[in-house]
Design brief:
Blueprint lengths: L4 H18 L2 H23 L4 H16 L4 H25 L4 H18 L7 H18 L4 H21 L7 H28 L13
Helix pairs in contact: 1-2, 1-8, 2-3, 2-8, 3-4, 4-6, 5-6, 6-7, 7-8
Amino acid sequence: MRRPWLPLFGLVAVVELVGVGLGSNGTEWLAKPLLAPLLLALLWSARRRVDGVAVGLVFATAGDVALLVPGRAAFLAGMGCFLVTQLALLTAFLRHRRPPAAASLAYVVLWAGANALLWGTLGPLRLPVLGYSLALSLMAAAATGVSRRVAAGGALFLGSDLLIGLGAAGVHLPGQGLLVMSTYAVALLLITTGWVTATSVADRPSPVGRDPLRIA
């Protein structure tokens, strides 16, 4: 029987995107705080253990709630929560497998270039963004050592937060809010499902390499 968590996540993600598109804060309060918990339920149903990805999803939930509150203090609180998310994911990925050196170098170069471009426009957010974006870039680099699916999720997570950074720097693109949330939701989905598959194969090797997320 197919687990209900993926369809529920898809439904909640659609509701969240509708809320963003309509500018409905109430709809966002209803949907956004459920995104990471639904994936946490999926992760728990598959692995029955607390690991770095589970911790990351818990703090992602706290960060999502904080970022729904207006103001700089709430923004910094949300960034702090997501910093813990990135560090938890980074730790889990590195314990699983070391990433290719080329990927790590590429993400560090991207981190340095992006911060150099935005440095003059971030004002008092410069140092918090510098530290957070370093953790985010290292997480995305470490994700390349887990699987292609997790690597894609890490890259999308970085892309989503880069769009937020552009907004903080005063750069606003058409449909930016929808881009931020859609890439973020897909990033969490890819990271969680990819992690379940990669760790299930490692824990229970099988000659057929069956994906635990497929229909039984």
